[in-house]
Amino acid sequence: MIELLDIKKAFNQNRPNEYWALHGIDLAVEAGKVTAFRGPSGSGKTTLLTIVGCLSRPTSGRVRFKGEDISALPERFLTDIRRQSFGFVFQQFNLIKGLSALENVILPAFPTGRPRAELVARAGELFERLQLTHRAQAKVEWLSGGEQQRVAIARALINDPEVIIADEPTANLDTALSMEFMAILEGFTAAGKTVLLTSHDPLVVESSAVHRVVGMRDGRLIGD
Questions:
Q1: What's domain 2-65+74-223's superfamily in CATH?
Q2: In Å, what is the CA distance from 71 to each residue of 39, 139, 191, 209?
Q3: Which one of 20, 67, 177, 193 is at 20 to 30 Å from 186 when CA atoms are compared?
Q4: Which band of pLDDT confidence, cut at 50, 70 and 90, is reported for residue 21?
Q5: Hey, CA dihedral for 85, 19, 27, 194, is it positive or negative?
Q6: Do 22 and 29 touch, CB atoms closer than 8 A?
Q7: Helix (H) or strand (E) holding 104
Q8: Strands (DSSP E) along 93-182, which ranges?
Q9: Which of 63, 58, 54, 111 is nearest to 85 (CA)?
Q10: What is the pLDDT of residue 180?
C-alpha cells in the first residue's frame, strides 16, 4: 500500500547546521496491518511518519501510495491526499482549547464541503463507538487525558481515512489508558484501516495488536 524507496531527509541543507534525519529508507507497508516504529529519540521515526503522511517531503527518494508516485505532486494534490486518505493522532493531541469536543472533531472535515449536519452525525457515531457521547459538548480543556485522546482519535477518523498515523500515542497515558488505546487499535484493523505508529512503550510494541515492529536508529532501519 505504501512504499518508501531510498528516502533521505535533510534539515537546514547547505547550512552549517545541516542535519540528515533519514539515510536511505527502503520500506513497504502492508495494508490493513499495524506497523510500529521503535527507536530512541532522534532516530528519525517522527520524520518518517511526516513523510508517509504527506506532511513533509523527502529531500530525495520516492514515496508510492497505492501504486502511485506521490513524491513530486504539487502541494494542492498532496493536501487532498492527506485530507482524504490519512488521519493523524499527535502525541500532544493538538486539540483547540475553547472549542468543544464535537467542534474539534468536525473541524478537519469542513474543507470537504460536506453539510454540517452530516459531519455532526458522523461525529456522533464516532463518539458512541469511543464512549464519548456524554462529553461531546464539553470544552476539550475540561476533559481527562484519556478523553482528550479519544477526541483526537475521533478527529482522525472523521474523514474515514484509509491510514491512521499515530506519533507516540501512549506517551502521556497511564497503563490502563494505554491498554484502552491498544484495544481501540485492534478495532481500527478490524475495520480495514492501516496503522503506522511510533512508540518507546513495550506495552505498545509487544502488543498482539501490532503486526510488525520496525527498529530505527540514527535515521536508518536496524531491524524488522
A1: P-loop containing nucleotide triphosphate hydrolases (3.40.50.300)
A2: 25, 38, 28, 30
A3: 67
A4: very high
A5: negative
A6: no
A7: helix 101-106
A8: 163-167
A9: 54
A10: 82
> Residue 24 gets which letter from DSSP?
E
- For residue 110, CA distances in Å to 23, 100, 115, 168 come to 37, 16, 8, 27
Beta bridge partners of 194: 163
Strand partners, 163: 86, 194
Nearest CA among 193, 150, 199 for reference residue 46: 199
27 touches 221 (CB < 8 A): yes
User: Binning pLDDT at 50, 70 and 90, where does residue 182 land?
Assistant: confident
Is the torsion defined by CA of 154, 132, 95, 50 positive or negative? negative
Average pLDDT taken over every residue of the chain: 91
User: What is the rounded CA–CA span in Å between residue 43 and residue 45?
Assistant: 6
Q: Which three cell numbers stand for residue 150?
A: 479519544
pLDDT digits (tens, 9 = 90+) for 79-103: 889 888 999 988 788 899 999 999 9
User: Residues 194, 1: contact at Cβ < 8 Å?
Assistant: yes
Residue 186 has a CB neighbour count (10 Å cut-off) of: 15
Q: Where are the domains of the chain?
A: 2-65+74-223
- For residues 63 and 183, give the distance between their C-alpha atoms in angstroms, rounded to a whole number: 30
For cell 483547540, what's the residue?
96
